[in-house]
Amino acid sequence: MKALIYPEYGRLEVGEWPEPHPGPGEALVQVAACGICGSELGSFAAQSRRRVPPMVMGHEFAGTIAALGEGVEGLILGQRVVVNSVVHCGECDLCRRGLTHLCRRRQVFGMHRSGAFAERVSVPANIVYPLPESVTSLQGALVEPLANGIHVVDLARGNDLETVLVCGAGTIGLFSMQAARAAGAQRVAATDTNPHRLEMARQMGADAVWNPAERNVAEAALAWTDGEGVSLAIDAVGTPDSRRDTIRAARPGGDIVWIGLHHDEATLNTFDVVLPEKRIIGSYAATDADLRRAIQLFAARRIRIDPWVETFPLERGDEVFLAMLRQELPAIKAVLVP
After folding, report:
1. What is residue 222's DSSP assignment?
2. pLDDT of 129-184, one tens digit each?
């Protein structure tokens, strides 16, 4: 079958990849759309050991059921579905506590097992979610990153959402911003060094946008909140600067959620966290409830993607991937269609 192959560090190519076959408890999914994730771009650029070639990447995908393995119930051929990016064991202590996304033996598509930058992929049937007719396959491919944004906001459940700051107006940042709105956030601000992304954030409903290259984010956030600080500060970038910005912008007793990943270490002033009792929370992937909520929000037409998401044929996957790395495309999110 055709796939976007990562044959060796520093290279991508569209070519032939072995056909997958569903084993017991698995389903074969005919991929309809698969998003290019920022983590994949970053891993490719850094030649990260988190994704070791030769392999096929891709973990944000939707499609249709093409075949069913032995013992699979509840799914039918031709059914439109979205698939969780994380495969869990269901047996470890974290899975038993409902934290399947943190499973001690978890596998991620396009990292530990063959991914969905391909025509077909075999998946465990227990991580497949039916898509309603009101949700397109393109939206389905974005359920996973939207669920990440929902998870970020849900982790701050102990705080109100009076004011929310999102550092980074990429895919996760824009989805976190919209998830916060859907959860009842009264006012939302966004930051980015890219003017185009700031404009997209404004179009997605941001009440204020700031470029950290031009303005001190913490000072801007304090002025925006009459000196109080924001109730929730989200870092969807992961740099030392963005981490410090979220700490300094959060109000006393406020929540700080970090989802952005970066290879650089950050040095923090613990006085900025301890004395005002700010809480720093890490966020990884999404729970079952987050994924179901993401599907519901798309079905209810409460999430916008049209101005900043663009589709491309899988045949152009290597070209699109490299263009995204060089920031040569106007799209914030690129989705490959086999």
Report:
1. H
2. 999 999 999 999 999 999 999 999 999 976 789 999 999 999 999 999 999 999 99
Phi, psi values for residue 317, rounded to 5°? -55, -45
Mode of pairing for the β-strands spanning 11-16 and 2-8: antiparallel
Give backbone dihedrals phi and psi of 111, rounded to 5 degrees, phi first. Answer: -135, -60
Q: What is the mean pLDDT of residues 45-58?
A: 92
Residue with structure tokens 């249709």? 64
**Domains along the chain with CATH numbers:** 2-142+305-337 (3.90.180.10), 149-282 (3.40.50.720)
Q: Please tell me the predicted confidence (pLDDT) of residue 3.
A: 98
Q: Which of 153, 147, 148 is closest to 256 using CA atoms?
A: 153
Task: Report pLDDT digits (tens) over 297-330.
Answer: 999 999 999 999 999 999 999 999 999 999 899 9
CA 261 to mean position of chain CA atoms: 11
Q: How far apart are CA 255 and CA 279, in angstroms?
A: 5
Of the candidates 41, 58, 156, 62, the residue with the CA atom closest to the CA atom of residue 108 = 58
Inter-CA distances, 126 with 82, 188, 212, Å: 12, 36, 43
